[in-house]
């Protein structure tokens, strides 16, 4: 269970699909339009986003890029904290607070991440996850050019998260410029992180659109469960009759998932870009 | 100090206290030492093979393929990734053989495409969780990348068939979120099959195209 969830939402929580159920097909009633949007995204990405991301990587050393990521992640702390609390996750709210205090001070305004070394592992939350914890179903899948995959619930959650973001309410002469800069740098940093991932999806997937939709769905479910899988929820693997197995088990075999670097980077990319994590 | 600021301070103090709690580790359930040993030995052997400079690229790839054939239950995985459409294979042994071979070739091409990534990495098994004691176990490990960096958490789901264990799925835990890769593969294939009236031959055709494309790329690099 997920900590101190208000009793009123316990029944609703029971309706949240487990990881085992996540293997069911994602609801994608607008697949035709979504695939068109995906094609638009791919075209824009190939023409603009990818070249810019590669350029960013070429001209910046890795520690600098990591510092940018850390800084952006630290800025998201209020949003994460609000959602930790709305989900009744006091322990995780504590971790978020501790990370924010430590990284904003010792970590030089969030550029460094000494909190992780102190045992305060980073996690992410957003209002889409909070809605899921409250029992709201994801609704239809949506692919938005430039923003990537989402669902009706998660898109609505993203809008609500703006309310928790101090940048939304900040005042000042240059605040609009700061907001635009933050958005642009966030997108750039996110795209740079998944250069290899996207390359692999394009090269190795039989259906890149479905591959992204699947990864998004599975990682979202895991994020909603805070990465806590009950092993009893894992699916069964049917036995293969011995006579059939012997006829299919010859020769050198590979493992679709051991070459995990493809998937590691794929899923890493998904978690960073498509689950709103940067 | 006003009552409002006191409330804020109390609230903040509570959160900071909770952050200390967050550092505490969780207790865990029963382990299976035999399963842990199996994963440690076999995964280490595979990684050693990748780093073995006494073999040429072809020998290294063949040895790695053989190791993985023993380590993973490919027929069972090939069946699993078809989901409900796998029922077609029960009455058609020839189709099952063709599908399993096609899937294996695709799998081999995928990892050969990225073999070098794990050369020099090391694995350390840290835990295990029994789903069905002695038969279905999740082994928890960390892969330490070559040259340092943060270890990557990897979980291996292994099933005992007869006297031997075999891997059927692998999960990665990234930024705290978990994904089981055979499940991911199943979802992708189900999407393709769903758009083609469940025709496994269409999926095989797609896989062969992708495999051929990867083969060309691998060949061009070597």
Description of the structure:
The complex is a heterodimer of chains A (278) and B (222). Chain A is 61% helix and 3% strand. Chain A is an all-alpha fold. Chain A has one domain (32-230, 259-274). A two-stranded antiparallel ribbon of chain A has the order 1-2. In chain A, helix 4 packs antiparallel against helix 5. Mean pLDDT of chain A is 80; it is low at 1-24 and 246-278. Chain B has 222 residues and is α+β, with helices and mostly antiparallel strands. Chain B has one domain (33-221): Tgt2/MlaC (Nuclear Transport Factor 2, Chain: A, Roll), CATH 3.10.450. Chain B has 8 helices and 5 strands; from the N terminus they run H-H-H-H-H-H-E-E-E-E-E-H-H. Chain B has helices spanning 3-23, 33-51, 57-71, 74-80, 87-90, 93-112, 181-194, 200-221, and strands at residues 122-132, 136-144, 152-161, 164-174, 177-180. A 5-stranded antiparallel β-sheet of chain B has the order 1-2-3-4-5. In chain B, helix 2 packs antiparallel against helix 3 (57-71), helix 4 packs across helix 6 (93-112) and helix 6 (93-112) runs parallel beside helix 8 (200-221). The radius of gyration of chain B is 22 Å and the shape is globular.
Topology of this structure?
The complex is a heterodimer of chains A (278) and B (222).
Chain A: H1 10-14, H2 31-59, H3 62-75, H4 77-86, H5 90-105, H6 114-117, H7 127-133, E1 141-144, E2 148-151, H8 152-164, H9 166-169, H10 175-193, H11 195-204, H12 208-224, H13 242-248, H14 260-274
Antiparallel strand pairs in A: 1-2
Helix pairs in contact in A: 2-10, 3-10, 4-5, 7-8, 11-14, 12-14
Chain B: H1 3-23, H2 33-51, H3 57-71, H4 74-80, H5 87-90, H6 93-112, E1 122-132, E2 136-144, E3 152-161, E4 164-174, E5 177-180, H7 181-194, H8 200-221
Antiparallel strand pairs in B: 1-2, 2-3, 3-4, 4-5
Largest interface: A-B, 76 and 93 residues
What is the assigned CATH homologous superfamily of chain B? Tgt2/MlaC
Based on helices, strands and strand pairing, what is the structural class of chain B? alpha+beta
Helix segment tally of chain A: 14
The largest beta-sheet of chain B arranges its strands as 1-2-3-4-5
| Silhouette of chain B | globular
- How far the N terminus sits from the C terminus of chain A, by CA atoms, comes to 26 Å
Could you give the order of the helices and strands of chain B? HHHHHHEEEEEHH
Total beta-strand segments of chain B: 5
And the CATH topology of chain B? Nuclear Transport Factor 2, Chain: A
Unreliable segments of 5+ consecutive residues of chain A: 1-24, 246-278
CATH architecture of chain B: Roll
Widest β-sheet, arrangement of strands of chain A? 1-2
Measure the end-to-end span of chain B.
72 Å
What would the principal axes of the Cα set say about the shape of chain A? globular
Number of domains of chain B: 1
Largest sheet of chain B: 5 strands, antiparallel
**Number of helical segments of chain B?**
8
CATH class of chain B: Alpha Beta
